[in-house]
Each structure stands twice: as structure tokens, then as C-alpha cells.
């Protein structure tokens, strides 16, 4: 299982488990764990050994109180300092699981809005619905800003020696800014694109609503 941190960040919901590193579902097979701990040549982004565990100094969880915001009444993740284009913001922690598990396990994760694929070939994903870290509070950019300023990215965690998911600032020139520009300013909300697949599975892709009761502070 994962390691629960004794110190959760400010505004962390008391009903949720805060993780200082990933948790692991008991149904994972040895072959899947081996795949999780094998770094392929295409996995170039890294979580460095120097990154401290526990609450991040780069972000803060903040209640959304703007009526026009899709997550009004819930929460978002905001930068506490200027973040450079392409830089790591925070790892995405949750329960690492397999979609090859029993149907009752899969159904729970299929309904989750916090489930991200780590390794497609090994059928591995990480779900932060019930346990995670600050990264689970990253909102979709739709209805918030013109374009995303960050992205979920598969990477290699040097500390844990395994594949991971993390939130990175978009590189300059990718979707959000002209070449030589970009980054996230202090106080700015960190927003990614959940992808068309996420919204396509909802009732109406044109109605930007984020039903994330767990994000209510």
C-alpha cells in the first residue's frame, strides 16, 4: 500500500486520504509491477530525486468562489510562484490499479473522474478519487481560460524507480503561447485539458460542468 502523509496541505478535505507517494491495489500482478518498474527509452520526463515528498511549495488548493467558473463552490489548484515553461509542477498520486481486475474493481474506476492511464500495454492506471495529493484538484481549462497552461504527462520517478504520472507546465509554444513565451504566473490557476473523451462521456460536451463533489472544501 501507499504511504499516508501525516501532514496534509492546507484546505485538504478531511474525508480524503492524503498520499505522499502512490498506493497500490492488491490485485496487481507481478508482471504489471515489473512493467511499472521498467523504464522505456521514450520515457524522458522525470521526477527528480531532489523533489521532497509531502505537500508541494509550488501549489495551493483554493476554493473557487467565482459564479462563472465551472467549478464554482468546489476547488482548484493555483501556483504559489512563477512556474517556467515545461517544468514539473507536481506528481499525480493515487491508487495504481489494473483494468484487468475483477469487474467490481473496474466499475469503480471507470466511474472515476480522477483516473489516468500510466501504461497502456500493461493495463495500468492511477486513480485519485479516494486518495491522492494536490494534483487531483487540477481543473479542466474549458470555461476557465482560453487554453490550458499545463498537462498530464507520463514520466519516470527517480525516487521510486517507477513509471508515474505528473503535472507539467506546458512547453512554450505548445497550445498556450507563442514561442519564447508561456509559463504560469504566481496566483494563476493551473488548468489542463481533460481531453474530448472525458467530456464526450458526459451528457453534453458543450455544457462545461465539473461534478466533483470530493473537491468541495
TrEMBL record:
The lineage of its organism: Eukaryota, Fungi, Dikarya, Ascomycota, Pezizomycotina. Residues 75-195 form the SET domain. It holds the Pfam family SET. This is SET domain-containing protein.
Amino acid at each position: 500500500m501507499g504511504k499516508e502523509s501525516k501532514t496534509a496541505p492546507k484546505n485538504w478535505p478531511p474525508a480524503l486520504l492524503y498520499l505522499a507517494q502512490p498506493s497500490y491495489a492488491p490485485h496487481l500482478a507481478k508482471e504489471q509491477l515489473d512493467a511499472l518498474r521498467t523504464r522505456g527509452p521514450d520515457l524522458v520526463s522525470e521526477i527528480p530525486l531532489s523533489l521532497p515528498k509531502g505537500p508541494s511549495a509550488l501549489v495551493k488548493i483554493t476554493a473557487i468562489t467565482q459564479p462563472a467558473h465551472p467549478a464554482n463552490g468546489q476547488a482548484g489548484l493555483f501556483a504559489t510562484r512563477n512556474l517556467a515553461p515545461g517544468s514539473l509542477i507536481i506528481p499525480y498520486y493515487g491508487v495504481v490499479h489494473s483494468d484487468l481486475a475483477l469487474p467490481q474493481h473496474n466499475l469503480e474506476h471507470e466511474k472515476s473522474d480522477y483516473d489516468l492511464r500510466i501504461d497502456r500495454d500493461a493495463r495500468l492506471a492511477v486513480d485519485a478519487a479516494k486518495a491522492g495529493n494536490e494534483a487531483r484538484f487540477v481543473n479542466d481549462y474549458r470555461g476557465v481560460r482560453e487554453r490550458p497552461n499545463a498537462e498530464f504527462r507520463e514520466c519516470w520517478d527517480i525516487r521510486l524507480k517507477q513509471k508515474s504520472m505528473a503535472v507539467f507546465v506546458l512547453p512554450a509554444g505548445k497550445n498556450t503561447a507563442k514561442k519564447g513565451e508561456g509559463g504560469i504566473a504566481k496566483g494563476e490557476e493551473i488548468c489542463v485539458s481533460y481531453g474530448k473523451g472525458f467530456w464526450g462521456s458526459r451528457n453534453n460536451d458543450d455544457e462545461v460542468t465539473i461534478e466533483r463533489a470530493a473537491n468541495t472544501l
